[in-house]
């Protein structure tokens, strides 16, 4: 009788673990084996090259994929892994993919870390499948520009789920003379996005930037929102990145943030712009308010943010000592149409003072838009 009870308990525990494992595919965080800590068997490796398409648990691969251990050498270069001890390298036309259970119609963001190892023009293609005909949930992410001093950057990509199970693919479309050349990839994570709405207190959506992509714990370089991101599937809900370079999503655990737990750093001068289109009433007076500061990341010297709304603009200067801090600014304007584009960009190209050559810039946060009629006067 006792043995039967023990067996029943073990079966219940096994069932519970399976259920928890299934549910974990939609909980914010790393995908199953998203950090690649579980690797191929020795018989499935030829040196560091993976020889079987299912050798890496939870993943399927194709093309020239290497399983990289932190500290492994490539010529004179030491390969460093940002989280844990292992990562993968995607060589010529290589990809990794995984299927995950999601909520059909839900919005999600993918976060992953990547590092360039060879060519200057390396890029990665993020794909979601299946997808409807009107969706274009593919993203070419250029990774030749490094924004952190560690050599690793994290990137985000947003999508709408068109099925209850979707495939996530990260592909290196490049072809080099050396097939081993290609970016390192690590820490692939998924996050459910809750789409914010406009309110009486703020006509802008997600003006405090609290809703955004998953930030991988113990990574101190934030998450890049790549260029040419539209509002429909933005990993930063409500906002459009309409520039040649990325903007950086930062958190209060690793950076100085003016308000709340999240903010955006404009890291590439006038090539790093953030925008949102809002409904307005022609002829009505509005006031745009926002905070400008530094992220406490050695971004020292003069910083400046240009804000645009309707036909009006303002340039806000901020002298940074690289230790955090911010000022508040406002831009009054009269709407000239039913749709007004609010846009922010950095007018100064800046690099961190730690001699790493990393791009940096001003932080913006707590962005609010109100009509003068509804504005609460101080």
UniProtKB/TrEMBL annotation:
Domain DUF642 positions: 29-191, 202-369
Which keywords describe this protein according to UniProt? Cell wall, Glycoprotein, Secreted, Signal
InterPro entries given for it? DGR2-like_dom, Pectin_Meth_Modulator
Subcellular location, principal: secreted
The entry's localization annotation reads: Secreted, Cell wall
Organism superkingdom: Eukaryota
Query: What span is annotated as the signal peptide, if there is one?
Result: 1-23
Q: What is this protein called?
A: DUF642 domain-containing protein
**Organism this protein belongs to:** Trapa incisa
């Amino acid at each position: 009788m006792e043995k039967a009870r023990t067996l029943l308990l073990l079966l219940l525990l096994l069932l519970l673990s399976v259920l928890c494992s299934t549910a974990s595919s939609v909980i914010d965080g790393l995908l199953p084996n998203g950090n690649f800590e579980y690797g191929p068997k020795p018989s499935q490796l030829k040196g560091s090259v993976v020889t079987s398409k299912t050798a890496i648990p939870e993943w399927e691969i194709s093309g020239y994929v290497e399983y990289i251990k932190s500290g492994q050498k490539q010529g004179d270069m030491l390969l460093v892994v940002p989280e844990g001890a292992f990562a993968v390298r995607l060589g010529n036309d290589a990809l990794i993919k995984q299927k995950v259970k999601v909520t059909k119609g839900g919005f999600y963001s993918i976060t992953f870390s990547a590092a360039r190892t060879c060519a200057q023009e390396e890029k990665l293609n993020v794909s979601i499948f299946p997808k409807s005909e009107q969706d274009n949930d593919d993203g070419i992410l250029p990774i030749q520009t490094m924004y952190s001093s560690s050599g690793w950057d994290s990137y985000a990509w947003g999508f709408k789920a068109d099925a209850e199970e979707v495939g996530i693919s990260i592909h290196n479309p490049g072809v080099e003379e050396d097939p081993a050349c290609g970016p390192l990839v690590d820490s692939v994570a998924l996050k459910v996005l809750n789409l914010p709405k406009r309110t009486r207190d703020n006509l802008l959506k997600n003006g405090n930037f609290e809703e955004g992509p998953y930030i991988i714990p113990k990574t101190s370089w934030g998450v890049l929102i790549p260029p040419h991101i539209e509002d429909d599937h933005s990993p930063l809900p409500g906002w459009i990145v309409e520039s040649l370079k990325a903007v950086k999503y930062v958190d209060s655990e690793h950076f100085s943030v003016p308000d709340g737990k999240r903010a955006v750093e404009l890291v590439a001068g006038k090539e790093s712009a953030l925008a949102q289109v809002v409904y307005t009433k022609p002829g009505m007076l509005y006031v745009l308010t926002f905070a400008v500061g530094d992220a406490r990341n050695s971004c020292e010297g003069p910083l400046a943010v240009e804000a645009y709304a309707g036909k009006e603009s303002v340039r806000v200067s901020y002298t940074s000592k690289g230790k955090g801090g911010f000022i508040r600014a406002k831009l009054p304007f009269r709407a000239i149409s039913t749709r007004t584009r609010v846009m922010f960009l950095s007018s100064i190209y800046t690099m961190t003072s730690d001699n790493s050559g990393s791009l940096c810039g001003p932080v913006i946060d707590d962005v609010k838009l109100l009509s003068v009629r509804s504005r609460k006067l101080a």
